[in-house]
Amino acid sequence: MSAYWPWWAGAIGLALITINHTLITDRSLGVSAAWDRVLHWRRERQLERMDEEFTDDQALAEALAAATAEHFGTGTGASTVPQDPYETPQPLEADAEPAASERPAATSLRPAPLVTQAALLMSIFLGGFIAAVASGRFHLRYDMGPGFRDLVTADSTTMIAVLFVGGVLVGFGTRLAGGCSSGHGLSGCGRLRPVSIVATAVFFGTAVAVSFLLWKVI
């Protein structure tokens, strides 16, 4: 284990990555969402093209108003707000709208651009590859190591089936929890979101329990 980074260096690195990703993209870091969007890149690109037409909140509001007027018909221009007969009618004023700085930008509610998600996945792969080569520990292998062979199975066909089922369960759990360990554990817990804290506790609690069963019981 001496060839690995110390835990505090890894913690600092993950914190810097999460903070920089949020500052640059104005979105939370999440690997599972990036993977899902890259897999369905044609659909996501079509949605991005549609969103590009309404990148401005004011333009979006005007388009919605025009579509509403076209569907329901324009009024006579008279106010439909009842007037107090004992007061002098006042000209209608536009509804009070919060300042632009007070309204959440529409872009901040949208997912990160598809190219950003693809760059994130490629960076994870390239970063791991560079780290393995630089440490002199990179080599191709087609099994999960001696620990997996001793505790689970040494048969290659069974190993592939087990890994496939495990991957499906991980995907199901990610969807059920609304995010993966990076989205909840790094971004969500960093923002003190209760749902992320609970999800992360379940993630790691289950991992600890399974590891204990494999090493101590089985």
Automatic annotation (TrEMBL):
Segments crossing the lipid bilayer: 6-24, 118-138, 158-177, 197-215
Region span, Disordered: 74-107
Subcellular location(s) per record: Cell inner membrane
Membrane topology field: Multi-pass membrane protein
InterPro entries: Sulf_transp_TsuA/YedE
Keywords: Cell inner membrane, Cell membrane, Membrane, Transmembrane, Transmembrane helix, Transport
Keyword Cell membrane in annotation: yes
A GO CC annotation given for this chain: plasma membrane
Family: Belongs to the TsuA/YedE (TC 9.B.102) family.
Protein name: YeeE/YedE family protein
Species for this entry: Streptomyces auratus AGR0001
